[in-house]
Design a protein that fits this description.
Elements lengths: L8 E6 L4 H15 L4 E5 L8 H15 L4 E5 L3 H10 L7 E2 L2 H7 L8 E2 L18
Parallel strand pairs: 1-2, 1-5, 2-3, 3-4
Helix pairs in contact: 1-2
Length: 133
């Protein structure tokens, strides 16, 4: 069995429902089930991102960057891009029009990139949060 090159996988997760609560659920899922530190967050099905959702995703991006990954937004509207620019989080949350563009933006080393599922209970690529965190 061959093992993919380090950094050759990403999680593709859709943000659906109310942006703030959906972002909080997504962050928890990633923190406890991520097996790779690169997460593409598809926001095309949710309403415009609010500052709370944007903040949660930016904090997640900072955590993922500490392990060599990050968060890329897919399909964010103009209002979300403007909010990210105004809040100074645009550098943490690069926006791409679709999944193909997001994958194409990933570093060339380690390609081919493939989607991988979150694996709850099977270990995590991320540092474990402190109790109560």
């Amino acid at each position: 069995m061959t093992t993919p090159a380090a950094g050759s996988r990403y999680h593709l997760l859709a943000l659906t429902g109310h942006p703030s609560s959906a972002a909080a659920r997504l962050v928890r899922a990633v923190r406890f089930g991520a097996t790779t530190p690169t997460v593409l967050v598809d926001v095309t099905e949710t309403g415009e991102l609010d500052v709370e959702a944007l903040g949660a995703l930016a904090r997640l991006s900072m955590l993922l960057r500490s392990t060599g990954g990050g968060v890329l937004l897919v399909g964010a509207g103009a209002a979300a891009r403007q909010l990210a620019a105004r809040t100074g989080t645009a550098w943490l949350l690069p926006v791409h029009r679709d999944v193909e563009a997001a994958v194409a933006s990933l570093p060339a080393s380690g390609r081919p990139w493939t989607v991988t599922e979150l694996a709850p209970g099977c270990g995590s690529a991320l540092p474990q949060p402190a109790e109560g965190g």
